[in-house]
Design goal:
Blueprint lengths: L10 H13 L10 H4 L5 H18 L5 E5 L7 H17 L4 H15 L2 H18 L11 E4 L5 H10 L5 E6 L16 E4 L2 H10 L1 E6 L4 H15 L8 E4 L1 H7 L2 H6 L11 E4 L2 H12 L18
Parallel strand pairs: 1-2, 1-5, 2-3, 3-4, 5-6, 6-7
């Protein structure tokens, strides 16, 4: 025989329990439960969301093909580089025997010497974007859109070149420990933030019609070798890989030595193009994709640009 209901339970206790039910994380819709989505075992879901969101944003904004531009975050305009050098020199004056202070001056001098790459990335971003803005506006589609990692330095310069002629440009920013903020020249609706480097890399490559590598460090090299490996193995579309700054790159990486050692084929050296001006980089892209000069009515883009 069942026990009779205990009517001694107060209405206040029932109400507290009801409120606790409504406030419980288990009661949240899964799509609104950030604590649940953020759990380690939900990583595949988060990766799929990053994959899908970027694809949706780029597709809905008509971005069919991109020119991906990489380069160092420390390569800044000359006035900023010179100001940093002045600070380093002042510190060395205060600590003339400090080895680190001497090293800081030498490094700052090197950055001043490379500040022209900021100007050239800016010019190149503008040159590429001029092609995009000359495209048929009636189609609501755009080819050869500048795409960068969204950060400072060379990336900022390329986005700035597009911004200053009113063209779209893409920035694929990444969550980093030092809270990197995207540069202010990216088209707002085309600035995406990623948690996973793998998903970001995928979207760098998916629509790429060319890769232009300005002087940079680990991040720049990471993207360079990722693309070279995929091109070498035939796992991505054929695109020109353009090394901007022949003196810098020939000093930093001896690709010929790799071929001489027999670890890459001689033909793999043909994957690389070396240039020292924005115009030379743009000409390689034009010739590779048979585009014709941007000031002339452009030909229809290659089939692989159709999305």
């Amino acid at each position: 025989m069942s026990k009779p209901l205990d009517r001694a339970i107060s209405s206040d206790a029932v109400e507290r329990n009801r409120q606790a039910i409504l406030a419980s994380s288990s009661y949240r819709l899964a799509e609104e439960d950030l604590d649940f989505i953020g759990r380690p075992d939900q990583r595949p879901v988060r990766m799929q969301l990053e994959l899908d969101k970027a694809e949706t944003v780029l597709r809905e904004n008509g971005i069919r093909s991109t020119v991906v531009i990489f380069g160092g975050t420390q390569i800044v305009p000359r006035d900023i580089a010179q100001a940093r050098l002045n600070v380093a020199k002042q510190n060395l004056k205060r600590h003339p025997s400090d080895a680190k202070a001497k090293r800081d001056v030498a490094r700052a001098e090197s950055i001043v010497a490379k500040s022209h790459y900021y100007d050239e990335a800016y010019k190149f971003g503008k040159l590429v974007s001029d092609y995009c803005t000359s495209d048929d506006e009636a189609t609501d589609k755009c080819d050869l859109v500048v795409m960068t990692g969204g950060g400072p330095g060379v990336m900022e310069a390329a986005n700035r070149g597009a911004f200053e002629i009113g063209a779209q440009s893409v920035g694929l920013n990444i969550v980093l420990p030092h809270e990197q903020e995207p540069n202010p020249y990216i088209t707002p609706e085309l600035c995406l933030q990623f948690h996973y480097f793998a998903m970001r890399k995928f979207h760098f490559i998916l629509r790429a019609a060319a890769l232009v590598i300005f002087p940079g460090g680990f991040g720049t090299l990471d993207e360079l070798f990722e693309v070279l490996t995929l091109r070498q193995t035939g796992r991505m579309q054929e695109i020109p890989v353009i090394m901007y700054g022949s003196e810098y790159w020939n000093r930093i990486i001896d690709f010929q030595a790799l071929a001489d050692e027999g670890v890459i084929a001689d033909d793999h050296l043909k994957l690389l193009h070396y240039v020292d001006s924005p115009e030379a980089a743009w000409k390689i892209i034009v010739d590779f994709h048979r585009l014709g000069p941007p000031e002339i009515e452009p030909e229809a883009p290659p089939a692989e640009f159709q999305g």
